[in-house]
Amino acid sequence: MYYSSGNYEAFARPKKPEGVDSKSAYIIGSGLAALSAACYLVRDGQMEGSRVYVLEKDPVTGGACDGMYYTNVGYVMRGGREMDNHFECMWDLFRSVPSIETEGVSVLDEYYRLNKADPNFSLCRATENRGQDAHTDKKFGLSDKACSQLMKLYLTSNEELYNKKITDVFDDEVLNSNFWLYWRTMFAF
Ligand SMILES: Cc1cc2nc3c(=O)[nH]c(=O)nc-3n(C[C@H](O)[C@H](O)[C@H](O)COP(=O)(O)OP(=O)(O)OC[C@H]3O[C@@H](n4cnc5c(N)ncnc54)[C@H](O)[C@@H]3O)c2cc1C
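Above are the sequence and the flavin-adenine dinucleotide SMILES. Below is the predicted complex in structure-token form.
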């Protein structure tokens, strides 16, 4: 999807590339990037899907976004996945991928309708005492000293950080802040 100013160019479909019917594509890996490339080859490059080969070295496909099917549970994947309204390319891609289950419906429609029927969002970012709002109130709570420690780290080269612990670069000004709480609990890691 190509946005120039507005969506004039975004919705125009490319002409079929010359000679595409006699070409094949071999994509290394089966992560999101690979699957997106395969979709774009089919949708925009107008290559037959049967000419696109996805080669994966691992026994499980999907890379960092792998998932397993369990008969009694359904599909389960590691970690949570947070999607943003401005994943422009992904939503564009999802709307061109047909649903496996429902005719005339796209993956985007399925995703959107599921979120309407079963909304999934957080009422607060951090909890304490078994589910009480920790009232971090979307504030990083960083002092000037903490900000300068963060900026210093940001401007330090990778090599200079070899063999250093996080406590060598941050003290309690950072480590007791909401920012650090947000950072270390990001994606529930
Ligand atoms: C637990 C977790 C939670 C996440 N949460 C979010 C989230 O909420 N929102 C979000 O936007 N992102 C999230 N991410 C990040 C997102 O999942 C990844 O950025 C994305 O899946 C990466 O896709 P990729 O195709 O670039 O790479 P990968 O998924 O790493 O795919 C690369 C693939 O190539 C294969 N490969 C490598 N070398 C070879 C080779 N020589 N031959 C064959 N195959 C090879 C690998 O085995 C792998 O399958 C999360 C990631 C994790 C792990």
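Helices lie at 32-43, 88-96, 107-117, 144-154, 166-169, 172-175, 178-184.
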